[in-house]
Design brief:
single chain; Nuclear Transport Factor 2, Chain: A; 6 strands
């Protein structure tokens, strides 16, 4: 699977709130680092992190603007939206630097835009 295909699978899993499928895109020792500094290490822990957010987090969406891949590295420009209590969406842009190893995400590191 190409880097672009792997990332498309990850985005589809996130938007479907499928924590198991999303975590399967990460290496066993993968790292998921959010822009606010939260770091989760290991596929099982990443899956648990996603599952908790999907279950208890606010309504949200993840829209990808651009993916640039070069070998085992990628950059993802995205917009993360959260639906407020009044029904209005607030969005923030961000970028993630991604390192791949063996066809899986080794590191997902987010930066706020």
């Amino acid at each position: 699977m190409s880097a672009r295909d792997l990332l498309a699978t990850l985005f589809e899993a996130w938007n479907a709130h499928d924590a198991v499928r999303a975590a399967a895109c990460f290496a066993e020792d993968g790292i998921y680092r959010e822009a606010d500094g939260c770091e989760v290490a290991g596929r099982a822990e990443i899956g648990g992190h996603f599952a908790r957010f999907f279950r208890t987090g606010p309504p949200w969406r993840f829209d990808v603007d651009e993916v640039v891949c070069e070998g085992e590295r990628a950059a993802v420009a995205y917009r993360f939206g959260v639906k407020g209590q009044g029904g209005d969406w607030s969005e923030r842009g961000g970028c993630a630097m991604v390192r791949l190893r063996g066809g899986l995400v080794q590191l997902w590191h987010e930066y706020r835009g």
